[in-house]
Design goal:
Elements lengths: L4 H4 L7 E11 L2 E9 L6 E7 L17 H6 L3 E5 L13 H14 L6 E11 L1 H11 L9 E5 L5 H7 L5 H7 L3 H12 L13 E6 L7 H14 L3 E6 L6 H7 L1 H18 L7
Parallel strand pairs: 3-4, 3-5, 5-6, 6-7, 7-8
Antiparallel strand pairs: 1-2, 2-4
Helix pairs in contact: 3-4, 9-10
């Protein structure tokens, strides 16, 4: 199912990029990841990265590129994945399965990539954060991860559908009071991380710009509060005055951009420490 792994493995004495490895195939269509493996013999902790793009666009390199170098420099391997983009609302949420399949694949090939299958995190930004969170909150034994980093993640899709200014009022009016509205809201609730929190959830780090007008900062506040109330571990890291998107942060808020990446690395080092699994 994958490309020849032996041909893509990094050298022992240098970090190296691995490109276009097929991790899953859905109805004949392949899904790929790119990866970066630190220098050394490992085994390294790893982060599987899920890009954003409103569930309908985006790619595994462009949206999340600012995360690659800090992770490898910190000795954390990264795997940035494709997933199925939504073409209509009836298919919304199927990409959660793709995230789970990526976790399963990476764990199964851990020794080939010199990573520790018991020290894996999910990192998702925007729509990718929702997918990563849902995969982590509803995992099986073989797809369980040890930590989740979610950046400006929509955690309550029902609230966004009802209140976001990005949803045209005409569209809301067209379905209000109809069976379709009931079905859509039920599905959005089912796919909202806020309503899937469990006591045994892995620890979450939520990173969110306080001036985000696309996904309100209050969404991460509510998610973290719900996790703590349930007995799960959550930390919220606000990026003061920032809007939506790490690529935007790179150019407009360089100090905050450096700080959030340092926070991710230090938090992952703590929660993916080998001592935690001895």
């Amino acid at each position: 199912m994958s490309l020849a792994l032996s041909a893509t493995l990094p050298l022992q004495n240098a970090s190296e990029r691995i490109k276009s490895v097929e991790y899953s195939r859905i109805d004949g269509d392949p899904l790929y990841f790119d990866a970066g493996i630190p220098a050394g013999s490992g085994p390294f902790p790893a982060a599987i990265i899920v890009h954003g793009g409103g569930w309908v666009r985006g790619d595994r390199l462009t949206e999340v590129q600012p995360l690659f170098a800090p992770l490898v420099k910190a000795g954390i391997a990264w795997f940035s994945i494709d997933y199925r983009l939504s073409s209509d609302w009836t298919q919304f949420g199927v990409a959660i399965e793709d995230v789970s399949n990526a976790v399963r694949f990476v764990k199964a090939h851990a020794s080939e990539y010199r990573i520790d299958p018991d020290r894996i995190a999910l990192i998702g930004e925007s729509a990718g954060g929702q997918l990563a969170a849902m995969a982590a909150l509803n995992s099986s034994a073989e797809t369980r991860v040890n930590a989740v980093v979610a950046l400006y993640t929509p955690t309550d899709l029902v609230d966004l559908a009802r209140n976001s200014t990005l949803v045209p009022q005409q569209l809301r009016d067209s379905v209000r009071g109809t069976p379709l509205e009931f079905l859509m809201m039920a599905r959005l609730r089912q796919l909202s991380p806020l309503f899937n929190v469990k006591r045994d959830a892995p620890p979450f780090l939520l990173i969110h710009g306080t001036a985000d007008r696309l996904v309100p900062f209050a969404q991460s506040q509510a998610m973290c509060n719900r996790m703590k109330e349930t007995g799960a571990s959550c930390e919220l890291y606000p990026v003061s005055g920032a809007g939506h998107g790490i690529r935007w942060w790179e150019g407009s808020r360089p100090e905050e951009s450096a700080a959030y990446k340092e926070k991710i690395v230090e938090w992952l080092k703590t929660h993916l420490s080998a001592r935690s699994f001895s």
